[in-house]
Design a protein that fits this description.
Chain A is mainly beta. By secondary structure, chain B is of the alpha+beta class. Chains A and B meet through strand 5 and strand 10 of A and strand 4 and helix 3 of B.
Chain lengths: 464, 298
């Protein structure tokens, strides 16, 4: 690959002694100041308490601090994703706060200054929601839209794919609405992944798995889901009275293009050793070309026969028709797509290779130049044994990773083993925490004792 | 009441090296920041082990004043974890006056936290787990697979409630009981990663709570995850279970009228209920007892 890669372990030096499972990462880059970046993971507040932390960089990702500002009713969140407002540069977060046992609660948060020690403001709380996924876009010259894709068990039973949104999220009192995006019958519910991609023109794509059939037992870890991959679109920034109804399927004329029908995948309650300790359950990502809202890319995972497989497709007509696979990744998970200002397509994913003791998790960044999606360059960011470190909880690496772009640059985040072995990072890496590449060991703050390896978040920036 | 300083997650003896300065790049120096050398850590999370001898940036509490060269015991929260550590002070106490009762102070945060946890509980018992069972619906799903009447709601955060039946040997707080049932999440999901997972034969102290009331929502609503049965206690916090070795510490902080109940022979079931909430005088007694015990050991 001809470009420049920068890869860094995000755990700061003052936390050299930490050995938590910092999985399920997400990233936000301030579009008005790309030097300001916020990352998230299941990293607990080292001091405990009720405020969870975010990773903050003010130098474009070259160094990171951990800032506990997320009111989560626990030292860690149940889920967290973040985005910066394109007008205000405010940091928004959609989290699940830690439970009291009576249900899940979506909490939408905002901070005017992510570097401040002041806890984020709570904009709204709502019960019954799963896997909030935050995105944002401009709304005119002064306002900004915040969208939180989520799976909502409360609002429309059976039709659970949902978008919570505010058309003026920066307002002193942000008002939130919600829109169901499922119009067909489901197998009592849909999947937790509801992902949005926003274009500055106000065009928004949302992709979700419409579950059509369940067989097996979730608790027994044998559940197989049969689903449709559905894309909906809104052409006016969700501002109309009936949002997300602009893209209909030609077969039934209902909103939501059925991109792939009857796909099957396991939905695990626990990660299995033979599946790299990772909890499988489908993966979705969607990205729109910032230069042309009609060009959109989609990735989803499903079984090909018995093999978990990641598929990447493209559409050049606003989602009306879709290509066959432009890329197929065996055992690919945690996919994230993004298109930079040149129209180059970036793809981040993790894939399981080998089996048994030789099984490895590899993290890849691939890129196709604008208009050349038959040719992909490939960078291996990380490559480590899948059986080490041992899982502390589910999910092992996360139910998602993330990548975005600003200008020509791609910014990504993923979780992987922090074993300081240079062979695990074939394109280089920087550690902030105390480490020794020669002895492949981590040490505590005073370098006086060894620290066990664990899962850490890694940030990368790729400049083509 | 737990005092803010005693409840601080980070307590250390330190020496103020410089005022109005900072060694954390993203925390600019101002009148509220000071550079403090950590001379000795009294209480800290494991991830911050090895901090003794390092310099940290301390942002003073409102009204707190520091002088260069002063030595004190600082109680603080984490402010920023960066190339160095920045802490938010809750306040400090002079080292001299505290040194006289160092052992006492050293025990106070732990005792106070335990006391608060006990105060918040509905029932505190010692006992043994005689049985762990799936709730009715889970049992159905596990033994027969997904049947038509089984739940179709699927969330990766589903707690998969289990019920532990505890044979009670002592009641430390709450109503008399010989047997008590507690719901706990068996899920390995991140949301429940620190909740206690009880196993048959496990003995210790069980600090139990009444389930949170179900939100007032429509009957059709399913709230994302299954709530625990309302007729059993719940244990969600890692501190809801203490090993048998913690019983003396618990006894030390209990009212006198309960201490007799704590002198039972193992295995002999003798139930006694707490009569009153634990008060300040009992806290003092607990601290004294702990101090005495500490001195004997050293």
């Amino acid at each position: 690959m001809a470009g420049t890669l920068f890869l860094i372990n995000m755990v700061p030096n003052s936390l050299s002694g930490e050995s938590e499972q910092d999985s399920e990462p997400m990233l936000a880059v301030d579009p008005n100041n790309p030097l300001q970046i916020v990352g998230t993971a299941f990293t607990p507040n080292p001091m405990g308490g009720t405020v969870a932390p975010v990773y903050v960089s003010v130098d474009g990702g070259k160094s990171w601090t951990l800032n506990p500002i997320v009111p989560a009713d626990g030292e860690v969140t149940g889920d967290i994703t973040v985005t910066f407002g394109p007008r205000s540069s405010a940091l928004y977060a959609g989290i699940l706060k830690m439970p009291t046992g009576s249900g899940t609660t979506l909490r939408i948060l905002r901070s005017k200054d992510a570097t401040s020690a002041t806890p984020m403001d709570v904009l709204t709380d709502r019960t019954g929601v799963d896997q909030p996924f935050a995105q944002s876009m401009p709304n005119g010259k002064k306002s900004e839209v915040l969208l939180i894709g989520d799976n909502d068990f409360d609002l429309r039973p059976g039709k659970t794919s949902n978008v919570d949104y505010s058309l003026d999220a920066a307002a002193a009192t942000a008002v939130f609405k919600n829109a169901g995006v499922e119009w067909r019958s489901s197998a009592s519910q849909n999947g937790p992944q509801v992902r949005a991609a926003c274009h500055a023109s106000g065009v928004v794509y949302v992709v979700y798995y419409g579950w059509r059939k369940q067989t097996g037992s979730f608790e027994g870890n044998t559940l197989i889901v049969t689903a449709d991959v559905v894309v909906v679109r809104d052409d006016s920034g969700a501002a109309g009275p009936n949002p997300f109804m602009n893209l209909k399927d030609p077969k039934d004329s209902l909103p939501g293009r059925l991109v792939a029908q009857g796909v099957r995948f396991p939905f695990r309650s626990q990660g299995k050793t033979q599946e790299g300790q990772q909890r499988l359950g489908g993966d979705l990502s969607i990205a729109v070309d910032p230069n042309n809202s009609e060009v959109v890319y989609l990735a989803y995972s499903a079984l090909s026969g018995t093999k978990y497989t990641l598929h990447v497709l493209e559409s050049t007509d606003s989602g009306k028709s879709w290509s066959k696979d432009i890329l197929t990744i065996p055992f690919g998970i945690n996919v994230a797509l993004s298109v930079n200002a040149k129209g180059d397509v970036g793809l981040l994913y993790q894939k399981l290779t080998g089996s048994g003791k030789r099984a490895h998790w590899e993290t890849h960044f691939q890129m196709a130049a604008k208009g050349s999606t038959s040719t992909w360059s490939d960078l291996t960011l990380s490559n480590h044994p899948a059986n080490s470190p041992l899982k502390q909880f589910d999910p092992y690496l996360g139910d998602y990773a993330y990548m975005t772009s600003q200008g020509h640059d791609f910014y990504g985040i993923f979780s992987a083993s922090n074993e300081p072995d240079v062979s695990h990072f074939p394109n280089g890496v920087i550690f902030q925490r105390n480490h020794d590449f020669s002895s492949k060991s981590l040490t505590n703050l005073s370098n006086s004792s060894a620290v066990p390896i664990s899962i850490d978040p890694f940030f990368f920036k790729y400049t083509p | 009441m737990v005092t803010p300083m005693a409840d601080a997650p980070f307590v250390f003896e330190g020496t103020v090296k410089a005022a109005g300065t900072s060694n954390v790049k993203s925390l600019p120096a101002d009148r509220s920041t000071a550079l403090v050398t950590v001379d000795h850590v009294r209480q800290a999370p494991r991830s911050l082990a090895g901090l003794a001898g390092k310099e940290i940036t301390l942002r003073v509490a409102e009204g707190e004043t520091l002088k260069v060269g002063m030595k004190a015991i600082f109680s603080a929260d984490g402010l920023l974890f960066a190339e160095n550590l920045a802490l938010q002070s809750r306040g400090h106490e002079p080292l001299e006056s505290v040194a006289r009762s160092a052992a006492l102070i050293g025990t106070v945060p732990v005792v106070q936290r335990l006391r608060k946890h006990v105060d918040d509980a509905a029932l505190v018992v010692s006992g043994r787990v005689s049985q762990v069972r799936a709730n009715e619906r889970s049992a159905k799903v596990l033994t027969r697979g997904l049947s038509p009447d089984a739940p179709t709601r699927v969330s990766e955060h589903e707690p998969f409630w289990r019920q532990a039946v505890i044979q009670v040997s002592q009641v430390h707080k709450g109503p008399k009981k010989k047997e008590v049932t507690v719901s706990f999440p068996s899920s390995t999901d991140v949301m429940w990663r620190k909740a206690p997972k009880f196993t048959k034969g496990q003995t210790g102290v069980f600090i139990l709570h009444t389930p949170a009331p179900a939100p007032a929502i429509a009957a059709r609503s399913v709230r994302g995850i299954t709530p625990p049965p309302q007729d059993a206690y719940v244990a969600l916090d890692p501190n809801d279970y203490l090993p048998p070795s913690a019983v003396p510490a618990l006894q030390a902080m209990l009212p006198n009228d309960l201490l007799g109940a704590s002198q039972q022979q193992p295995g002999v079931l003798k139930v006694r209920a707490a009569r009153a909430p634990i008060g300040r005088s009992h806290m003092r007694k607990a601290a004294k007892k702990a101090t005495k015990s500490y001195k004997k050991r050293s």
